[in-house]
Structures are given as C-alpha cells and as structure tokens.
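SAMPLE LOG
Freezer: B-3
Tube label: C17
Construct: single chain, 107 aa
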Amino acid sequence: MKKVFFALSTLVLIVACSPKTTEVVEVVEVKTETNTEAAVIRKPSVEESEGMTLYNAHCGKCHEHKTISDYSLERWTKIVPNMASQAKLDATQESKIMAYVKWQLGK
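STRUCTURE (predicted):
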C-alpha cells in the first residue's frame, strides 16, 4: 500500500510541476468618455519567457540591448540569426529569442 501511495504521489507531483504550454490571455476593460472597450493583453508563453531570459543574458554581453520596437520583424529575422551565430547559441535558443521578439512586436 505504501508503494502505491508513493508512486501516486510522485506522479501527481510530476504532473503538477510540468511546464504549462497554454497561452495566457488577460482581457481588460478600457473605459473612455464615449464607450467601454475590451483590450486583450497577451502574456508571454513559456517559450517567449525563455527567449526573454536568453535575450537579456546573451544579447547585452557585446553591446547594449536593442529596443525591439525600433526594428521591424523583417529586420529582426536578419539580426537574430547573425547575432545567435556570433554568441554561439544553438537553433533552439535562437528560435526562443525570435519568439520573444515576435511577442514584443505583437506578431
């Protein structure tokens, strides 16, 4: 009986600690003088959050962090692969940084 309880407890703990991959969206009401509108605020996914961590950790080592909104998505698709190569980041890390950039740009 103890083995079954231990196994079940371990399974529950593993499932509870697994990363959540669903997108979190928060709806906020915005009131103006004429009407009330709903604004959707999209919170970053796990991949986008990891991309932000990588961006902050690696992209400021050699130069100042760039303001993401200063460049178009087209420009970022050229910047990120070049900089990822110079920073010796793998393809997974590069894609997470790109996901973060897209999230910042609202794409």
